[in-house]
Amino acid sequence: MDIHRESGQFVAGYQPFYLRGQNADLTVSASYMFGKPVLRGHVRIVRETRREWNYRDQKWETEQGESQEGELDAKNEFHATLNLSKDHSDLQDDS
Questions:
Q1: What distance in Å separates the CA atoms of residue 25 and residue 21, rounded to the nearest whole number?
Q2: Measured between alpha carbons, how far is 95 from 83 in angstroms, rounded to an integer?
Q3: What's the burial of 28, exposed, middle or buried (CB within 10 Å: 0-12/13-18/19+)?
Q4: Which member of 30, 31, 36, 95 has the lowest number of beta carbons within 10 Å of its beta carbon?
């Protein structure tokens, strides 16, 4: 999982793989480099549908899919669930 940030530290809780029927339940928290939590921070989670390295420009080119966004709560966390049912179905169709 890639974490893009402007400053400070962001931590996202996830697992490396998901079994059929499971969705991705994510928890994101944020703190500044000096350790204080980011108050009233805005979080945006974007799913990449394609990622390809552009050798000429030396950067990743991506296509974005669904996104979820919101504010950090009183515990300095943002919770989101990504529905993986279509991904599971696509994998099953390919086998």
A1: 12
A2: 21
A3: buried
A4: 95
| Backbone φ, ψ for residue 18 (5° rounding) | -130, 135
In the chain, domain spans = 9-94
Cβ-contact 66, 47 below 8 angstroms = yes
**Nearest-angstrom CA–CA distance, 26 and 47:** 12
Q: Which two tokens mark 91? A: 């994998």
Contact between residue 79 and residue 25 where contact means Cβ atoms under 8 Å apart: yes
37: Cβ contacts below 8 Å, ≥ 6 apart: 29, 30, 31, 72, 76
pLDDT over threshold 50, residue 3: no
pLDDT exceeds 80 at position 56: yes
